[in-house]
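SEQUENCE-TO-STRUCTURE ENTRY
===========================

Subject: a protein chain together with a token-level encoding of how that chain folds.

Sequence line: the amino acid chain in single-letter code, read from start to end.

Question of interest: how does this chain fold, as expressed in backbone structure tokens?
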Amino acid sequence: MAVASHPGATYSNLQKHVSFGGMMVMKLIAQQADAGALPSLYAATGEVASGEYFAPGKTFHMNGAPVEVRQPKRAYDAAVARELWTLSETLTGVSYDFGEAVRQSA
């Protein structure tokens, strides 16, 4: 099963690495770290199906309780997926052979 999530704008100790202005913006729009963890916790432990994607439900998915987010059709495009995989292998220098059966089904 593959389920995705993101924490939205979450204020944590990572903000010590951003500018003062960026930190002030985060303090205004971000949620606390425990709230930011909820989409990932829900994706990992909730009644979910493979392919679903969870994010905070308010303000451009920046904060709020987790909700399922509908992905754009492009997210399911096999050609885009292959292109992204190839680029990822090129940029990281890491590749993985999934076998002939997987290549034929793609």
About this structure: The mean pLDDT is 87.
